[in-house]
């Protein structure tokens, strides 16, 4: 993490550039290795795995910085509901990989405690704090993640003993960068808690021990109520490749080509359109069963195109948003309002789309 007062401290764009360069730098080195070894099969396979890992990290970084910007601007949509504080503990535990989970001791609250919060975002915050604690903890020491009743309501504490060179301090919350390749910057974690009318504090329990303390807003509804969930559209059959007609609507010829070349071997009949007018013409001529639609189309955007297709074809066409943006709550809400059945991240690739189409919409 950048030191306070350094050139990159507190600059979202600079921190993003640093994180992306760090994530993608192995790609160039791996390609050089492949060239030096004349692209032999073993090296090419190893390079492909490294490139995939680098891209996954880069995509996760982009999503994390979009989230950071929404938090800073106060535009993050939160699905606030009455939930048990132990539910946050459990969901955060499930986010950790097995080897990280084994370093933690999770202690649920013995009293029945409910809070007003977004379950998913709160679990992601706790996951980020736990990862940070693990990365800086003294070798062999355990991380305690404890839910308890505090003076003003339920709290969650993440406690760790740190190495001397990893002195705890407020500077940890200055940068947008996720420390030690975490999924969320501590600055973003604190901002999410504030947006939920809660707080995130750093306290010292001993010279070599620190506690992250999460405090939540009190519950306004009975604890028995579960977090709200989006209601799916009317049931529709899953897509069975083999005779499925699919249209890709994207102004990038490279994107259309990449998806078509991967989907055709999977059994789809694929047509293409570069804009909304072409898509509507294809719709009348070929009656596709699935429309994969980019949002940033020239003249008529993807939202308006989806509305036009839904008005013409009703539920006969399954509409999938091909999103080049982070699939956050705002994007998903806008897609539902436009008539889309599902969303898929453009970066996820054709195989992710294929898996989605095997499931019922929603």
Q: How is this fold's topology laid out?
A:
Elements: H1 12-36, H2 41-73, E1 80-84, H3 85-95, H4 98-101, E2 104-107, E3 114-118, H5 119-136, E4 143-150, E5 153-161, H6 186-195, E6 199-206, E7 209-215, E8 217-218, E9 244-249, H7 253-263, E10 268-273, H8 276-286, E11 290-294, H9 302-313, E12 318-323, H10 329-338, E13 342-345, H11 350-357
Parallel strand pairs: 2-4, 9-10, 9-11, 11-12, 12-13
Antiparallel strand pairs: 1-3, 3-8, 4-5, 5-7, 6-7
Helix pairs in contact: 1-2, 2-6, 3-5, 5-6, 8-9
Structural class: alpha/beta
Q: What distance separates the N and C termini?
A: 39 Å
Order of helices and strands: HHEHHEEHEEHEEEEHEHEHEHEH
Low-confidence stretches: 1-9, 221-237
The order of strands across the largest sheet is 2-4-5-7-6
The CATH superfamily of the largest domain is Histidine kinase-like ATPase, C-terminal domain
Shape: globular
Question: How many domains, in number, for the residues?
Answer: 3
* Reported CATH architecture of the largest domain: 2-Layer Sandwich
Rg: 23 Å
Average pLDDT level: 82
Can you walk through the features of this model?
The protein has eleven helices and 13 strands. The protein has 362 residues and is α/β, with parallel strands linked by helices. It has three domains: 62 residues; 139 residues, Histidine kinase-like ATPase, C-terminal domain (Heat Shock Protein 90, 2-Layer Sandwich), CATH 3.30.565.10; 114 residues, Response regulator (Rossmann fold), CATH 3.40.50. Strands 2-4-5-7-6 form a five-stranded mixed β-sheet, covered by helices on one side. Strands 10-9-11-12-13 form a five-stranded parallel β-sheet, sandwiched between helices. Strand 12, helix 10 and strand 13 form a beta-alpha-beta unit. The longest helix is centred in the N-terminal third of the chain and has 33 residues.
């Amino acid at each position: 993490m950048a030191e306070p007062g350094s050139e990159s401290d507190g600059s979202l764009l600079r921190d993003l550039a640093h994180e992306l360069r760090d994530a993608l730098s192995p790609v160039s080195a791996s390609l050089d290795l492949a060239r030096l070894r004349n692209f032999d099969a073993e090296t090419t396979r190893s390079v492909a795995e490294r490139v995939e890992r680098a891209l996954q990290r880069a995509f996760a970084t982009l999503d994390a910085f979009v989230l950071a910007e929404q938090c800073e601007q106060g535009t993050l949509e939160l699905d606030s509901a009455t939930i048990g504080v132990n539910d946050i503990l459990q969901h955060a535990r499930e986010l950790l990989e097995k080897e990280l989970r084994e370093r933690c001791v999770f202690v649920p609250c013995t009293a029945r405690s409910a809070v007003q919060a977004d379950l998913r975002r709160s679990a992601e915050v706790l996951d980020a704090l736990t990862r940070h604690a693990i990365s800086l903890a003294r070798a062999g020491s355990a991380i305690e993640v404890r839910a308890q009743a505090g003076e003003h309501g339920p709290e969650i504490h993440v406690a760790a003993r740190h190495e001397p060179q990893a002195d705890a301090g407020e500077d940890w919350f200055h940068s947008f960068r996720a420390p030690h390749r975490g999924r969320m910057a501590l600055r973003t974690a604190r901002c999410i808690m504030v947006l939920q009318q809660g707080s995130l504090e750093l306290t010292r329990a001993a010279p070599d021990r620190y506690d992250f303390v999460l405090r939540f807003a009190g519950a306004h509804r009975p604890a028995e109520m579960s977090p709200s969930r989006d209601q799916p559209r009317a049931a529709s059959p899953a897509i069975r490749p083999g005779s499925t007609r699919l249209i890709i609507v994207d102004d990038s010829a490279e994107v259309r080509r990449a998806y078509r070349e991967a989907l055709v071997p999977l059994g789809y009949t694929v047509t293409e359109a570069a804009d909304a007018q072409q898509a509507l013409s294809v719709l009348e001529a070929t009656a596709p069963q699935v429309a994969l639609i980019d949002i940033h189309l020239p003249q008529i955007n993807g939202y308006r195109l989806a509305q036009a297709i839904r008005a013409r074809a009703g539920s006969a066409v399954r509409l999938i948003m091909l999103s080049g943006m982070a699939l956050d709550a705002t994007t998903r809400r806008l897609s539902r309002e436009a008539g889309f059945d599902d969303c898929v991240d453009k970066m996820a690739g054709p195989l992710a789309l294929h898996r989605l189409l095997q499931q019922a919409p929603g």
